[in-house]
Amino acid sequence: MNKMRKIKGGVCAAKGFVAGAAGCGIKSGKATRDDLAIIFSELPAAAAATFTTNKVKAAPVRISAEHMRAARVRAIVLNSGNANACTGPNGLADARAMAAATEKALGLKPAQALVCSTGRIGVPMPMPIVLKGISSVRLSRAGGTPAAKAIMTSDTFAKEFALEVITHDGHFQIGGMAKGAGMIDPNMATMLCVVTTDAIVPAAALRSAFRESVADSFNRITIDGDMSTNDTAILLANGASGISPSPKIFSHALDTVTRALARMIVEDGEGVSRFVEVEVRRAASKPDARRAAKAIANSTLVKCAWAGGDPNWGRILDAVGYCGAKMNEAKTDIFYDELAAAKNGVASGTPVKKLRQIAAKKTFRVTVDLKVGKAACVVWTTDLTEEYVRLNLGE
Amino acid sequence: MNKMRKIKGGVCAAKGFVAGAAGCGIKSGKATRDDLAIIFSELPAAAAATFTTNKVKAAPVRISAEHMRAARVRAIVLNSGNANACTGPNGLADARAMAAATEKALGLKPAQALVCSTGRIGVPMPMPIVLKGISSVRLSRAGGTPAAKAIMTSDTFAKEFALEVITHDGHFQIGGMAKGAGMIDPNMATMLCVVTTDAIVPAAALRSAFRESVADSFNRITIDGDMSTNDTAILLANGASGISPSPKIFSHALDTVTRALARMIVEDGEGVSRFVEVEVRRAASKPDARRAAKAIANSTLVKCAWAGGDPNWGRILDAVGYCGAKMNEAKTDIFYDELAAAKNGVASGTPVKKLRQIAAKKTFRVTVDLKVGKAACVVWTTDLTEEYVRLNLGE
Fold first, then answer.
1. I need a labelling partner for B112 at 20 to 30 A (CA). Which of A64, A133, A371, B259 fits?
2. Which chain B residue lies closest to A391 (C-alpha atoms)?
């Protein structure tokens, strides 16, 4: 018998993890808020990580990927206010120095720390204040929330989620934190996520569970279709609970955490006024289902209509038509929540007023039934508001 | 010796073409402005046409494609206010009836008229008033501008362009009209274009010249990345000038007309405050160059930065990184007009203030030099403003 219950906290909800934050003044030179965080596993840990697939990769992404190959990770240092992206060889040296300073402060071996950065791009990292900040961080079990706050940029709330999972052998904990895929005052979108668990999970199983979990959570959300140079998601498992859950139990708990964090990221998207779940059903293939769902979720016109509370199914059908997925206009149905907007490619007859009531809600679901196969995909997205444009006009 | 000069007019600039418009009240039921146009070639004409590649195709697109295969086209009937898209079998019958009524009014044989519609989608065409409008249109040499006005939706100006081309045998005329790729009060983007010429051009040569010309003009612009269900471009050549220009001369004149109209469409995009020419150079292949240019031009974040006059090269590099084109961050240069913003993937050292002066202009050029091959592509696009969102919030 297995049960999960939501508990307080994030990256320190699991045993044997401590965290802390410091204010360095990375963005402005003035330390008005925490902008640096360290997470540390007191025990050796198995690690899994996924990084942006953008060909333009920030320096911390390159260094973290290198350290993932080299050694057993024990610590993560994260900062907001500067993405250390598009900074050339000096940026790589800076990311390396941030890892080294963290390793030194914690008495670790080389390549045992990962680095995550988010913030302005193309700007050199202000290393003296960052190194000073790293040496000043005090780690404790209470440091999870300060760490989640320190990585916020345009996020309006800190994103933490944790579970206690009860197995027949005993219980383990899993929890995490994330920062949102909004614009980075005033540069590019970045998603960072760290999940920790005290379950015992072998490294290979951890990596495959995490890969699948990320694919079904963070890789299924989109705010604006712009993939960042800094996206990083990390999972550490230190075994401190003494529990070895079955792969199924562990994956279920992990998926619950990653989905909860992914949902928070979308709900806190910049200028967002609606959270929309887009489901494409009965597509010819998985890639087709995903392509259609992403085309709808990233269509400027569809997103603007949602912002106005307009259930414009024509724009949705249009996006499905140009995305490249196999489809037949004359077979396609479109629903807002449970109400049909279009049946077989034409207006369903449902009064527009009723559809409008759904499209004006804060959260709703759009379902597109292609009737050409058996594959499905769900994507979470937002509307596109004037506020979003205003936030991203730049400096 | 060949010379071209810009002349007044549009679809009636070439000899043997007449046009006219009528106000039917297609959208609102009230005929407050012209919303129907007919263009007629007094002589038999060779025809070429390109249609949307969206799998969701409006009824007039399907009927026009059918008529292009069947017969020698002599007339085009166009309307604004209703796209006749996503209207099922009834919509097809309506488009067919519009063609038939036009053929009858002009004494033509079946399938000699094409149909173009733009406006609301998913709404039945109000056929009684449309058919009455078709029978009321009076055609004349002076009808070009009224026709160009009748197809406007959210366009702020009528788009016409014409040339007189002087060859050593004499001169011919070529001219056209277009409507913009803006949102259709409140539905989807549609681009319509008709070009006419009195040059003698064999049908096969006409088709190949038009295909290439459309690829280098209308297919290289983007306002919002949403491809319409109704996009149609038509070229008629009736030979009335008695001149048979060389393919080179004809293509040059045709390209000048299509590019001028394409540029007008972008300049009149909804809520636009900047016209941006994006050039990607030294890409590994033509498709790569196009993919990178389109990714930049359609990036929500890049377009928002431009709206704010922010020369945010990081967002541009980010878009090139995720578009799938072969690239190496450490080799990539980015320019605003002639000024380097980034060299080899890092800030160029050009003062941001100077770059900002360029990004705040109404028209500027962004060049991305990938240095991985020899292919290039130029795309024309716009910024993304709060006004655009406001215009597209829906009903």
1. B259
2. B304
Chain B closest-CA separation from residue A366 CA (Å): 17
Tokens for B304, please give them: 């928002």
Residues B217 and B85 in one domain: yes
C-alpha angle B379-B381-B385 in degrees, rounded to nearest 5: 160
pLDDT tens-digit readout, B277-303: 999 999 999 999 999 999 999 898 899
ipTM higher than threshold 0.85: no
Q: Same structural domain for residues B285 and B259?
A: no
| Chain A hits for B153, Cβ within 8 Å | none
CB contact (8 A) between residue B345 and residue A56: yes
Assess whether A113 and A213 both reside in one domain.
yes
- A337: domain CATH number is 3.10.20.340
Nearest to A135 by CA among A161, A173, A177, A102: A102
pLDDT in tens, B9-66: 999 999 999 999 999 999 888 888 999 999 999 999 999 988 888 888 889 999 999 9
pTM of the model: 0.83
Residues B393, A304: C-beta atoms closer than 8 Å:
yes
Which of B234, B267, B300 finishes a domain?
B267
| Residue B339: domain span | 275-391
Residue B190 · residue A281 · CB < 8 Å: no
| Helices A88-105 and A127-136, axial angle in degrees (round to 10) | 20
Positions of B marked catalytic: 190
A221 and A322 part of one domain: no
User: Are A386 and A271 a contacting pair, CB within 8 Å?
Assistant: yes
Nearest CA in chain A to B317: A56
Cβ–Cβ below 8 Å for B394 and A312: yes
Annotated catalytic residue, options A190, A256, A332, A382: A190
| Number of domains forming the structure of chain B | 2
Chain A residues closer than 8 Å to B347 by CB? 86, 122-123
